[in-house]
Design a protein that fits this description.
This protein is an all-alpha fold. It is built from five helices and no strands. It has a domain of 38 residues.
Length: 82
């Protein structure tokens, strides 16, 4: 067991939640930590491998060709071959 010092307003919030849910404060904290845990958030993360390339096609727009678009624009504007 570990003792933790919390600011009064945080302790009051925890006690309110525990009272409202009719559970001990320690149980409320444990549940909150389970929801906040990085291990839990990893389980809810999407499976990126299954969606990578799903919209792969030959159509490009400026978001994917910004350098080429700007280079062509400035070459034309300033008549510079490079």
């Amino acid at each position: 067991m570990v003792n933790i010092t919390l600011p009064d307003h945080v302790a009051q919030q925890l006690e309110e939640i525990a009272r409202h849910e009719n559970r001990p404060v320690a149980e409320v904290i444990e549940k909150m930590l389970q929801q906040y845990s990085p291990a839990q958030s990893d389980e809810r993360a999407p499976d990126w491998d299954s969606i990578v390339g799903i919209y792969d096609d030959d159509v490009t727009d400026m978001s994917t060709s910004v350098r080429e678009t700007l280079q062509a624009y400035f070459q034309k504007k300033y008549a510079n071959p490079d």
